[in-house]
Amino acid sequence: MLSYLHGFHAGNHADVFKHSVLTLLLQALTVKPKPLTYLETHAGAGVYDLHSAQAHKTGEFGAGIGRLWAQRAEFPELSAYFSAIAALNPAGGFARYPGSPQLARYGLRDADHLILMELHPTEAQKLRHTLGGDARIHIHQRDGFEGLPALLPPTPPRGLVLIDPPYEVKNDVRQVVTAVIAAHQRWAGGCYVIWYPRLAVQRDQSAQLLKELARYFPEFLIAELWTRLPADEFGMHGSGLAFINPPWQFAAQLQLLLPRLAAALAVTPEKLPNGGWSVKTVTK
Fold first, then answer.
1. Is 147 annotated as a binding residue?
2. For the segment 222-270, what is each residue's pLDDT rounded down to a tens digit?
3. Is residue 219 part of a domain?
4. Catalytic residues per the record (predicted)?
5. 134 appears as a binding residue in the annotation
6. How many domains is the chain partitioned into structurally?
7. Burial of 272 (0-12, 13-18, 19+ CB in 10 A)
């Protein structure tokens, strides 16, 4: 699917949730001195201009990073996330917003490697322009679902995979599950993170995705954050992350962060189930 451009949605509540959690995950994985590999299947452009016509057409960043940035002093555990944004904006603010590849680039060390896949030619070109000068980074213009198992196991042989397609194609759920299973068969020790949107009941495929994952994986962790109740057929009211092989005690970190993050991003968190967040382990 080559019509999706993340510039319309960069910095929204789903990005803030995903990137906050990614920051904690990278910190947990880099505690050990051994180098690691970061892989991403749908890398996008790497950095987004929130002053662009795309971003202002939706204005979604206002209810995402716009809201959290004003409260950043209350989230010391996300200092690396805010520092990555500040590094792109030396004059202040958050107009240049980092996608997950840029956050990984900022958070990883000299001996670590990044493998980024992006199929859209315009986005891949922007990604090369933004991150291509870093010797640690390998950029592939290819289908991430196909490319992920083909590039495994990586060197170094420990690390993290982020899978976050736009889910605009009906069979994206099936492709996610197929790619994760194929990847896990080649690299069972990797940490896999799968992002998914939470949509109105008529369009939401999250239950199907999690059910399919549970058929293959005996245990995995789920974290979700919602900013409002489902209100219409097309809106995204929240998003989720499924973790296969998360770091030790990572669930406890999420349970400390997500209640406060939901309170910061939701308009009326008191009206949402459990205040707008959930962390649970799925087991067979």
1. no
2. 999 999 888 766 678 899 999 999 999 999 999 999 999 999 998 888 8
3. yes
4. 164
5. no
6. 1
7. buried
Is 42 annotated among the ligand-binding residues?
Answer: yes
Q: Which domain holds residue 203?
A: 21-46+110-283
Is 144 annotated to bind a ligand? Reply is: yes
Q: Is the pLDDT of residue 2 over 80?
A: no
One-letter amino acid at 6 equals H
71 in any annotated domain: no
Asked if residue 204 belongs to a known ligand binding site, the reply is: no
Which of 15, 112, 164, 204 does the annotation list as catalytic? 164
Amino acid in the structure at residue 187: W
Could you tell me the pTM of the whole model?
Answer: 0.95
Residue 15 located in a structural domain:
no
Q: What is the pLDDT of residues 51-88, one digit of tens each?
A: 988 888 888 889 999 999 999 999 999 999 999 999 99
Q: Is 164 a catalytic residue?
A: yes
Instruction: Supply the CATH number for residue 235's domain.
Output: 3.40.50.150
Longest dimension (CA), the chain: 51
Q: How many Cβ atoms sit within 10 Å of the Cβ of residue 2? A: 9
Listed in sequence order, the residues at least 6 apart from 243 whose beta carbon sits closer than 8 Å to its beta carbon are 191, 192, 193, 194, 220, 221, 222, 223, 250
**Of 91, 97, 96, 136, which Cα lies nearest the Cα of 113?**
136
